Structure formats: structure tokens, C-alpha cells
Amino acid sequence: MQTKPFRIGTRGSPLALAQAHEARDRLMAAHAMPEEMFEIVVLTTKGDRITDRPLAEIGGKGLFTQELEEKLASGDLDFAVHSAKDMPTVLPQGLHLSAYLPREDIRDAVIGRTAPKLIELPHGATVGSASLRRQALIRRIRPDIKVTIFRGAVETRLRKLDEGQVDATLLALAGLKRLGKVDVITDILDPDTFPPAPAQGAICIESRIGDRRADDLLAAVNDPTTHDAVSCERAFLAALDGSCRTPIGGYAVCEGDRIRFSGLIITPDGRNQHSVTIDGNRRDAAALGTRAGQDIRVRAGSGFFDDWN
Ligand SMILES: NCc1[nH]cc(CCC(=O)O)c1CC(=O)O
Questions:
Q1: Mind telling me which Pfam families this protein's record contains (predicted)?
Q2: I need a surface site. Which of 143, 165, 194, 304 has the fewest CB within 10 A?
Q3: Are residues 144 and 180 in the same domain?
């Protein structure tokens, strides 16, 4: 019987802590283990420290994960808990995403101050968001809207909105639910017209490849439906661009042994886009995502990516 507690690494934001606690609670329940068997270890990442510049500018993917992954690789941590949406498509050698907790709602939520819905905002209104995808999708509906960079923890963004810095902001419904803040939401966006980021709403657990003790423990909390859907979405992202500089949206839905995926790429001004829908057997989830990404890549041509990079 193992007696040394498992060390679970997480960032320190309220959302990250809520996710780490959810992971620990599910592990305790699945294995009838006491709380003392899990130690939550809080680390600060580069993405947490730099809050005044767009993520794509600081260096894109990996900003929220590098410190955790170093400690995971060195054996200082047994697992790291992340928003799957923040994970690079390529992980450091020796690490893998070994479990996905049951997914929360995948949709984006609007928190409107001067109007509840995007289409009702005043002409020339300002929306705060640092996400290229949200920026592009907003401009597709409302080219007159100004999107300004809006970063920081969910609480910080809500405070800036309250102070009147912007007319509205967009946040993942999943994060607001996990923080118990759904009361601020004024509208929820349809994923078919406003596709979420790949892996949005999913919590993943990263561990060392070949760590049998970790694998045995994590298998009991893995949700196969979330695993397959997110694997498909991440493969789509990987086939297109891992750099975080291209607005990409898409989501997969599993039904029985089938999976259906819809995705798009769109220019930041919202004027040009290519979309794809594909379905197949759940067994081939990742291959379907890859094929969808390659299909879009061929149709868009390299010029589509060069135009603004
Ligand atoms: N990029 C930051 C980030 N990473 C995960 C979430 C929300 C939770 C999730 O999507 O699972 C957020 C904030 C947001 O987009 O509102």
C-alpha cells in the first residue's frame, strides 16, 4: 500500500485551483481514498506573471504549462491539472495527457454591460477579449465592434467590465460555472455560429509516460466521451497551427460509437473563413480531426495563413 501522498500540480488562479480540487475530489471518490493522499502544489507560470500583453505576442502556447511540466518531468509532481484548452498540441517528451474529466459546457458566454447580446451592443461598442478566435468571430457578426485586449484572471476581467472599460466581454461558460459566477452571464453563444476553442470546457490531467502508479489511479477518473471529443479537436488544431496565432474554432460531439466534428479557421477581421464538418467512428477520433484540419489547409491554401502572420 502506497503511503506517500500524490502531488498534484496546478496554477494558482481561482479557476485553476477549482479544477485541481475537482480532480482531487474525483480521485478520492473513485478510489475511496482520504484527502491526505493528495497534496495540491501551487505554481506560478509565465502566463500568470505577464498579464498586460496578448498571449500570442508573448510566445503563444506553453505559457501556462512549462513550469508545471518541468516539475512533472523531474518527479517533483505526480500529475498536473490543466484546462485542456491551454495545452500545446505537442507536449514535452515523456509526458502525456492521461485523463480527461467529464466536460463542462463548451460554449462561450457574453457578459454585457450596455446590452445583453452582441447584436444589441451600441454601434462602435468595445468588447474586451485577448482571444484571436473570439475577436474574429465577433467581427464576423459585428464589424463595427472594437475588440481590445483583455487579459488576467476571470475576476480581473469582470472588474474591468464593471469599471466601464468595455461594453462587454466574452468568457468560457465552463470557467464561470466552475467559479460559481453564472449570474453575470447575459447571453450564451450557439457553437454552430460561434464555435468554441478546441478542448474548451475540458479539464485534463498530465502525467509521465510509463508511470504505472499514476496510470492506474487516473484510469478511474477518465471520461471516454470527453477524451475522444477533445482528441479529435486537438488533432484538428495540430493539423492547422499549434502557434496560437490563427483564429481556430471547432468542437466534436460523440453519440454512441459515432463522432461528428465541425471546425473553422477565420481571418482576424472576420471576413474570410473556411469551415469543415466530418463524421465517423469514435475509434478514429484523432484521425478524423487531422483529416478535417488537412482538408481546410488544402482549401485555404498557404496564402490564407500568410496574410496576417
Ligand atoms: N485561456 C484562458 C482559459 N483557459 C480555460 C478557460 C476557461 C475554462 C475552459 O475553457 O475549460 C479560460 C478562460 C476563458 O476562456 O474564459
A1: Porphobil_deam, Porphobil_deamC
A2: 143
A3: yes
